[in-house]
Amino acid sequence: MVQERRAAGLPARRFAVLHRRELMAALAAAGMVPAVTRAQGAFPSRAVQMVVAFPPGGQADVTARPTAAALERVFNQPVPVVNRPGAGGIIGSASVARAAPDGYTALMALSSLGVLPESERIMGRPPAYTVDQLAPIARITADPTVLLVPASSPWRSVGDFVADAKKRPGAISFGSAGNYSTLHVAMAMFTGAAEIDLLHVPFQGGGPALTALLSGTVNSLSSGPGPALAHVKEGRLRALASWGRERIPGFEDVPTFIELGYPDVEFYIWTGVFLPAATPEPVQGRWRDALRQICQQDEALRRALDAAGSPIAYQDGEAFDRFFRDDTARLVKAVQRIGRVE
């Protein structure tokens, strides 16, 4: 048959297409279609990695672990959480920006994601990644940060804290997840509005910064409510104020900075899933569908995040893309006001 069609003068490309179709038809009839052909378009067909650019214990990690567990129930594949800390989140974020755009490596990011490239420019370094290298898939949570101090400290209110800081400029320290990190920017907003000078002590992530506060290594911290809630309930830490427009569930007795007369001190630490920008749209869509499903229907995920004091605030598609761009622009301005940090 092949020789007869070639003799009939069919073009070589047309001949190759016919030959391939005949071969596949014969294989299908014999039940021998290759597995790779049957699996085309099926995602995921193996484990999916979720990178957290910070050590365990911080807001991104607290959100990533129950989210990954819920995704395993939808993807029917393992979704290991990989902590890849360093440089305030730059190392892990850059690793995902450079990862193969196949959907098998995702990033659970914080709001600092968009400002870290600008911080590197301020420091005179070329950015390790740019936001255009990452595709925003979905926001999972969006919480105001809370100002924490040890329960044994003398500060029972923001007024106490500010008054002491004005008496002793540079004597009171605060921890952060690194220079220009989410927790650093939030405190910079507060110290600027209150006109106080605190000593900044950067760590490799929110988890180590919280540990430092608990151990007395630093005196204060802006933290996501999730990692802080249990320690506040146990009486180890005291929450003085929150950066939200409204009081936070679980912290109903804690006033907002807006209530206390600081109208411009408003900040949210959000978590969101990102993929390499070149990831095909069908794979991005599969991720969005899965994340939307678990955030709307998975009660175990909802309970876990509620218990952590960080309820689901789901957003995807154009809404999340717009939110991310607007939030990044606002935070970049704050980082530019901080300036170069030696």
Keywords:
44% helix; 5-stranded mixed sheet; 3 domains; D-Maltodextrin-Binding Protein, domain 2; 342 residues; 13 helices; Tripartite tricarboxylate transporter substrate binding protein; Bug_dom1; BUG; alpha/beta; 18% strand
Helices and strands, with pairings:
Elements: H1 2-7, H2 12-29, H3 35-38, E1 49-52, H4 59-75, E2 81-83, H5 90-97, E3 105-110, H6 116-122, E4 134-144, E5 146-150, H7 158-167, E6 173-176, H8 182-194, E7 199-202, H9 206-215, E8 220-223, H10 225-233, E9 237-242, E10 268-276, H11 281-297, H12 299-307, E11 312-316, H13 317-338
Parallel strand pairs: 1-2, 1-3, 6-7, 6-8
Antiparallel strand pairs: 3-10, 4-10, 4-11, 5-8, 5-9
Helix pairs in contact: 4-11, 4-12
Write structural notes for this entry.
It is a single chain. The chain has 342 residues and is of the alpha/beta class. It folds into three domains: 2-38; 49-141 and 271-338, D-Maltodextrin-Binding Protein, domain 2; 146-242, D-Maltodextrin-Binding Protein, domain 2 (3-Layer(aba) Sandwich), CATH 3.40.190. The protein has helices at residues 2-7, 12-29, 35-38, 59-75, 90-97, 116-122, 158-167, 182-194, 206-215, 225-233, 281-297, 299-307, 317-338; strands at residues 49-52, 81-83, 105-110, 134-144, 146-150, 173-176, 199-202, 220-223, 237-242, 268-276, 312-316. Strands 2-1-3-10-4-11 form a six-stranded mixed β-sheet. The protein has a five-stranded mixed β-sheet with strand order 7-6-8-5-9. α4 (59-75) links the parallel β1 and β2 (81-83). α4 (59-75) runs antiparallel to α12 (299-307). The longest helix is centred in the C-terminal third of the chain and has 22 residues, at 317-338. It is globular, with a radius of gyration of 25 Å.
